[in-house]
Amino acid sequence: MISHAKNAKGFLRDQEKTTWHDATLWNARTNRDRGSQKVAEWEQLRELASQIKNNVLSQLDDYLLQFEKNAVKNGAEVYWAKDADDHNRIIGEILKKHRVNSLVKSKSILTEECHLNQYLEKQGYEVVDTDLGERIVQFAKQPPSHIVTPAIHLKKEEIGKLFHEHIGTDEGASDPQYLTEAARKHLREKFLGSEAALTGVNFAIAETGGFVVCTNEGNADMGVNIAPIQIASMGIEKIIPKAEHLGVFLRLLARSATGQSITNYTSHFHQPKPNGKLFIVMVDNGRSDLLGKADFKNSLKCIRCGACMNTCPVYKRSGGYSYGYTIPGPIGSVLAPARDLEKYANLPFASSLCGACTNVCPVKIDLHDQLYKWRQEAAKKGYISTSKKWSMQMAGWVFSHPKLYRFLGSSARLMLRISPRFMIYNSLNAWGKSRELPKAPKESFRDWYLKNKN
Amino acid sequence: MNSKEIILNKIRSNKAGKSPLPDIPDFRNASTDLIQAFENSLKVNHAVLYKVRNSGEINDFISKNYSTDKLICSLVAGIMGNFDIDQVNEPGDLKNIELAVLQGEVGVSENAAIWLSEKSMKLRALPFIIQHLILIVNESDIVENMHLAYQKIEIDADGYGVFIAGPSKTADIEQNLVIGAHGARSLTVFVIK
Amino acid sequence: MKVGLFIPCYIDQFYPNVGIATLQLLEKYGAEVVYPLNQTCCGQPMANTGFENIGEKSIDLVVKNFHGMDFIVGPSGSCVLHLKEQLKHRSSELQNKVFELCEFLTDVVKIKAIHAEFPYKVGLHASCHGLRGLGLATPSELNIPRIDKPRSLLEKVKRIQLVELSRKDECCGFGGTFAVNEEAVSVRMGNDRIEDHLKNGVEVITATDMSCLMHLEGLIVRQKKNLKVMHIAEILNGNGIQKTDIPKKEYRK
Predict the structure, then answer these.
(1) Looking at the structure, do residues C225 and C130 belong to the same domain, yes or no?
(2) What's residue C253's pLDDT?
(3) Model confidence over C129-170: pLDDT tens digits?
(4) Which pLDDT score is estimated for C252?
(5) Which of A58, A373, B56, C122 is most buried by its number of CB atoms within 10 A?
(6) pLDDT for position C246
(7) Which residues form the domain of C202?
(8) C7 CB near a chain A CB, below 8 Å?
(9) A48 and A134 in one domain?
(10) CB-based burial of residue C145 (10 Å sphere; 0-12 exposed, 13-18 middle, 19+ buried)?
(11) Does the pLDDT at position C237 exceed 80?
(12) Same structural domain for residues C126 and C233?
């Protein structure tokens, strides 16, 4: 079982880095606030986006078939992948069939989820992640720690070191402008030499059979508009009914993610380019199962903006790796248990249930409610430690017996008042590690009430 | 059963409830000064806007800012260029172009997004592979927001289309904004009355 | 009006002064306050740990204890929110009668004046469950008209100076059993809140939830920081601060 608490404790050992990580994410949150406040109808847009996605989930099969029909009419080849292995195999076969040796990729969390890179690399393909943040973590041999800004946990000096090692930048250089220019040159070579390029899908439009990819860097287009083979990896939940709905989602997406009014490039792909091929791989990998869970299917509405993790006070202070899952933060903590409750039963508890995530979610996923509900599921399945379960049962029993509650309460207060400090503050007292317990009064409120008011 | 059947069967047995599609308003605000808002949005995105009356002014700008030994590809009638895109076979052959001049079909003032369909660029790589980009937008083609933009365009009229809202950028290194990631290092927009 | 006083378990045991201040405050504004003697807990700790069904027995007690009241008022946004959510399925009649103290004073009693003085720099900590769950104020992340019920009450207290914080409504990190199960994160969150208050010159931190304050106070006292915590009921009730407790003006730089 992934222990977020243990991982977070490790992260927090470096208090200075935590301060920096926290401030960086808080900045993303305030940028989001500023961007969203410029749109008077912001809350209305959230409601519309939520309703559109609700409609999609209620008719998902119809929309997928409509999309496939139109995409094929446009000249694309459409594949259905039931799981990660299926997805990887399909892409591997496309590359093999076209005698391609390397693949350039733009950001796709779905391919992270499917571990596509590892699969292809094992077969001898060169896989180049071209989003700057993704290329950085690729060099570092780390997974992304944030779904929008994958290298947010790395300082520029660390990135400078990686670039010196991998692309020959000056030793000790850490100026972001210099490093970005070096990455531009390095990746430009890869783009110009690429035979196949892959993107994710931000939105797939059933009505037209096309899909939209949003980037700031232009790396998706540099890849797929140059390479003859174009592949799009798409989660089946990314479908939207009509082109006009893009107006709603595109006004929400970038503002929620970074506060900018739109990503620099919003590319709409319908047909393969002249002399090129277009492959679309639609991936299930547990999504249709999640659709059947009434309490949790709302998380399929996610448009992967990252606003929830930017605002989460726990994510900010524990970092993406503490969650042990492809997607961290609040949305990760409700998606992961759906995939493997036993492994991820701890994640719904990595939250104080403050509720801020639910409020920033552009599609109104009830994130904190789902976190609470996953806790109930974890308890039902027996994934909560026996000691915790036992102490809760004891508490429940005490609290349903007022006389016993009063007796234990006054006894505890007496013990606290008379016990020497070492008996109270020791390794058995987790609260007392960094905090003083409240003073133990002689009288409870009830005692006072009986004396003064009854 | 193949994957498609497996997936569709699961969806059919798991989907629940009826959720109608909402009507989408266009949220237009009659009082918006579209050109001013468009200019402000471009500025925020580190792009520059010039208001001009004719293509002569644009040609002046180009000759003043780009030396004759640089390759300039113009796909806009009346704007000078020295690169003939019709001679190109592969997208990679565009790699040495310094400047592309393209016609934007719709401009969106809330976010500086400018729509170009495939016919306006001929080769999909062109707006990205060059070093600098000039887009020309007619004032009458500027709308207030994305809802109005999508009313004006047909996204599948061509095989490809893109909204471009500024020069390419990244903030992936310690959130420091760097202009000029993989696409154009600069965007200059000319609005013609 | 007959107001049933709901006193959370930890206030009953460790912060009786908050309960006393709540009772006195309600009586000042004309309520006939009744305190059912067999109260224990709202059941939230068990429910939040995944054992909602164990917590249900506590709700049974609440339903039994508060039968026949016009209103049920408690000095805790968190407990009141939990009660309201649990009573939704049990008794909507009872659910509509449950109020947190501040919202009761602003929405039901609709008080115009507060006869209390508090000449100190006060930081209002926006306890999450009251804020987002009960709508006691507008969360900073929502783009809707701004209201703030606890603040509107504090503003009526004479000579009070309400201090603007850098992060208006970030969570303090108590979160119930979270405080112990995710101890490292919880402590860091609490310390960050304390830093925010200190660097903006706060002398007294107040909130609608004593649980948040208990967590912050625990850190403040351990680190010997020059800050005091007081539940909003105590400030509104005119309790003031004991002479010995007046914080020094000198802060750790």
Answers:
(1) yes
(2) 34
(3) 999 999 999 999 999 999 999 999 999 999 999 999 999 999
(4) 36
(5) C122
(6) 45
(7) 121-245
(8) yes
(9) yes
(10) exposed
(11) yes
(12) yes
